[in-house]
Predict the 3D structure of the following.
Amino acid sequence: MTQHRTALITGSAAAVALVLAACGGTETPEQDVDVTRNAEATEVTLTFTSNAILGGKNEAEAQWYEDYVIPEFVAQQAEKGVDVTVTFEPNGVDDEQYKTKLALDLQSEGGADVIAMDGIWVGEFAEAGYIAPLTEVAGDDVDDWEGWEQMSEAVQQAAAFDDERYGIPMGADGRVLYFNKTLFEQAGLPTDWEPTSWEEILEAARALKEAGVAIPIQLNAGTAMGEATTMQGLLPLLAGTGTQVWEDGMWMGDTEGLRDALELYRTIYVEEGLGDPILQQEAAGRDTSFSEFAAGNVGILLESDYLWRSVVNPDAGTAPMADRDAVVGYARIPAREPGAGVEGQDFVSMSGGAARVLNPNTEFPQQAWELLAFIHSQEAFENRVASSPIITPRDDVNEVVLEDNPMLSYVATEVLPITLYRPGLAEYPEVSLALQEATAQVVGGMPVEEAAAAYQSALEGIVGADSVSTD
């Protein structure tokens, strides 16, 4: 899954904003879709698209479409007496370019029948009226699909907006606390560590510092880290205070939860020297933090399962650890204190992910839904991840493909049911940048109250004062 950049909207991102704004307003326009259109057709043509291409970006995904999805779906339809022609429309471009293409296609009532998109775009496209809830495109039978029972309510939110299912999640991930067991032993800490509060995290970091560990804790901060600061830093902390950045139609401003989260940054980086504040300012700071963790110089690191799969993976990682399975521990992220998290949770997490949606303009809504459901079926997912296990949105698939991977299984069973998602709204990238700037200010020495007030001011400039809550 690709992390989002959080620069102010420029270039192709501006084009997306203009296209999406063209419909006007924030009310979701009504879609007029005949869900039974061509339902009995025996000759059908379908297209689907993703930002994947043979010989380029996300090649394995594109190869799977050509080698498995198309021939298998065509064969299944043939057994029903339906002659279906399925075409995959590849792309291999920057995410913002792909987003612009989708917006322009849908604005002109064109585009593929089944569309893959980043889950964070779903709300934005829904508000623009470019996509519609699945039941409005393909009918109420969508709600009877067997796959929903294999996906927790939390996971389904990756493809939902305003409590409506707009698509099906393509994958899943989660954030946890990683820790180095060897360093923990040196500091007299338990290697089966699972903190239940922020204070317990601080206590462990203090013990690591006392034991001479170079960087007791790495909590992403600042603008150089980009979206990693927001997703692997501030948002999980906010969730641990019972706060979400967007809720009930309002954006979170200068709240007690924000100040508590920023205070934790101040404790770590300014008051107690438990982290490296300079690292947060480096252009390649996140990669440096990975290298330092792999080298045994970081005691605790908040990251997604990407670290386990793709960074410290002993076989193909960018910073491989030959002893990963023995040395690297992982634990859920605790709320500020037990019960203080969103929905009264003791532990919290954040997730990203992509989704596939139906084009409301499809000529074959029933068959397009069948294709979408097939791509997300148990057999299709098992085929997709057979050679490279990853967390899928389906519990039945995870039970099989993650059986020999305790860490990914842990995320699938312990983290995904309690996870949260970023709001899929057009303003989010700018809001995220403002949050990153707040952490940078605190790590740089600004008092928490001033940084929170500055964020409030920046937020009002982005979304308007009437859309900001300080409750």
Remarks:
- Residues 1-15, 22-29 have pLDDT under 50 and may be disordered.
- The chain is about 40% helix and 15% strand.
- The two ends are 33 Å apart (CA to CA).
